[in-house]
């Protein structure tokens, strides 16, 4: 089927979006979890990071059969969550349903059954010996943070779900003040179809091209920085495919919203190098071929760098 996608630039305001669009069904219970979790971390005196991870979808129908999606795998967010947990943070992990998850990402689901063995009596299942070392190491790390109640996962699918959830999380971590960080690694749709313009049922194919008009998703970042999480240390990500544009676009984003850090990355090289842009400073973070070969992940260095910046931010703004 030939399809044509037109994008219109007129857009409703960020605040109006939340009045008009349908909130996710489980939003109230998510809000409650976010508030309880944040309060607990406050009592424990922990730092807390909200990580967003994975792409968002744009449905083309209310009863969505078709939707627009993007490339994001959730690898950046999932790896970063583990390193923040290792650094002592509590983590709220807002992720695209079915994107990579912290801890689980180390195992390939399609090989799940290959890892298991059945005893001779066919009454008991165990994990094969060769999988035990890796499973044990991941499982112990996972159980530690779960027992300490330091890890909360909540999922989204559409861009609308994502924005409602992000607002709820940013508002919930307000109790943590400057000890909260927002680490916005999700690849968020820039264009969507407002619910008032969505057909109820599956679009019928008539053999002719389909033209879909998308509106710009209202820019929420200003509201996030100023209203939802004014004290938090905010890290946004800038993605480009043209590396010549990356620095200028990253600096532009920082200048526009006056938050703390923009991490810039190029699609093809995102697992090997990023730039970290703060006001007045640009640093490159990269992993060498040798490190890559050894399985070192760039998120290890990225999280270490950002955790140090966050500590400095907490110290400086206290004085
Ligand atoms: C990123 O740039 C992330 O690093 C990636 C990670 C999505 C590239 P993966 O999920 O990839 O590990 O496969 N996230 C932000 C992307 C984005 O859409 N940024 C917007 C922009 O560049 C600002 S919100 O304009």
From TrEMBL:
The record ties this protein, via Gene3D superfamilies, to: CoaB-like
- What InterPro entries does this protein map onto? CoaB-like_sf (IPR035929), DNA/pantothenate-metab_flavo_C (IPR007085)
Q: Name one Pfam family in it.
A: DFP
Where's the DNA/pantothenate metabolism flavoprotein C-terminal domain?
Answer: 47-95, 177-271
Q: What does the sequence similarity comment in the record state about its family?
A: Belongs to the PPC synthetase family.
> Sorted alphabetically, which PANTHER family does this protein's record hold?
CORNICHON-RELATED (PTHR12290)
Q: What is this protein called?
A: Phosphopantothenate--cysteine ligase-like
Provide the species name: Priapulus caudatus
Its organism's taxonomic lineage begins at: Eukaryota, Metazoa, Ecdysozoa, Scalidophora, Priapulida
Gene field: LOC106819519
């Amino acid at each position: 089927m030939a399809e044509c996608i037109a994008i219109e630039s007129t857009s409703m305001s960020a605040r109006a979006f939340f009045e008009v669009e349908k909130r996710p069904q489980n939003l109230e219970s998510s809000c409650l979890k976010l508030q309880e979790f944040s309060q607990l971390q406050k009592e424990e005196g922990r730092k807390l990071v909200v990580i967003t991870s994975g792409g968002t979808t744009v449905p083309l129908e209310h009863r969505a059969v078709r939707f627009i999606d993007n490339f994001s795998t959730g690898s950046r967010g999932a790896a970063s969550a583990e390193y923040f947990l290792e650094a002592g943070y509590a983590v709220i992990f807002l992720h695209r349903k079915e994107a990579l998850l912290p801890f689980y990402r180390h195992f390939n689901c399609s090989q799940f059954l290959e890892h298991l063995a059945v005893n001779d009596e066919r009454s008991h299942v165990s994990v094969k010996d060769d999988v035990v070392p890796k499973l044990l190491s991941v499982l112990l790390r996972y159980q530690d943070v779960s027992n300490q109640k330091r890890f909360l996962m909540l999922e989204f699918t559409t861009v609308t779900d994502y924005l409602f959830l992000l607002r709820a999380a940013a508002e919930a971590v307000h109790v943590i003040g400057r000890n909260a960080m927002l680490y916005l690694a999700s690849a968020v749709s820039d264009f969507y179809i407002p619910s008032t313009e969505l057909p109820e049922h599956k679009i019928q194919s008539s053999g002719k091209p389909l033209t879909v008009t998308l509106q710009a998703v209202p820019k929420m970042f200003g509201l996030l920085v100023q209203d939802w999480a004014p004290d938090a240390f905010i890290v946004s990500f800038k993605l480009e495919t043209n590396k010549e544009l990356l620095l200028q676009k990253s600096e532009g984003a920082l200048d526009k919203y006056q938050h703390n850090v923009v991490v810039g990355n190029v699609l093809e090289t995102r697992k090997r190098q990023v730039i970290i842009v703060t006001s007045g400073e640009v640093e490159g973070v990269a992993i060498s071929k040798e490190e890559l070969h050894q399985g070192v992940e760039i998120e290890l260095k990225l999280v270490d760098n950002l955790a140090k910046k966050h500590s400095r931010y907490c110290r400086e703004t206290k004085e």
